[in-house]
Design a protein that fits this description.
Elements: H1 54-66, H2 70-83, H3 89-107, H4 112-131, H5 141-158
Helix pairs in contact: 1-2, 2-3, 3-4, 3-5, 4-5
Length: about 180
């Protein structure tokens, strides 16, 4: 809309801000985190800066992944990486990258999705190897890494978007039926 910075539904010259005055894009988002026009019905966003226990983080992220909302799961992991212990940040950042990789794969990004899936797999595996913790908080690091690499290969092979809910990983491994 020219140089005024105005967007439909927002006054010219204004900028979206959060309660603390920080610039934040307030446009509604779809289930994969893509911005929608102002005034459109979107999916509720995850609140930022929530401090959760690791088990709460994993449970909430798994629910979001199962619902086909990997972008929102990434925000939950991001909170854990920013608020958790310094020595676990690489783990939570790797999990966030896995969720963002699935987000991009679901959006049809056949380059960025696989790249982020592999980066997240490597980060989580690297953290586990460095710390000597194969299943922190019940996480199936080896299974997640295998899932991520298989999905990355499939996305590159087909070049087509994936169904985020159908492709959602089990963070703590497959449950017996």
């Amino acid at each position: 809309m020219g140089s005024t910075g105005a967007s439909p539904g927002r006054p010219a010259g204004t900028r979206d801000r959060d309660g603390a005055g920080r610039a934040r894009n307030a446009r509604p988002r779809d289930g994969l985190g893509r911005p929608l026009p102002y005034g459109a019905d979107g999916v509720a966003r995850q609140p930022e800066g929530v401090v959760r226990t690791p088990s709460q983080t994993l449970a909430e992220a798994q629910e979001l992944l199962d619902a086909g909302k990997p972008f929102h799961a990434h925000e939950v992991f991001e909170d854990a990486w920013k608020s958790g212990p310094e020595d676990e940040r690489a783990l939570w950042r790797g999990l966030a990258q896995l969720a963002v990789g699935l987000t991009h794969a679901a959006r049809g990004n056949a380059t960025g999705g696989p790249r982020l899936l592999r980066r997240g797999a490597g980060a989580a595996e690297g953290w586990a190897a460095h710390c000597g913790r194969e299943r922190p908080y019940g996480l199936d690091i080896a299974g997640l890494a295998a899932w991520a690499r298989e999905l990355a290969d499939a996305v590159e092979r087909t070049g087509k978007p994936v169904d985020a809910a159908a492709q959602a990983p089990r963070l703590c491994g497959r449950q017996a039926s």
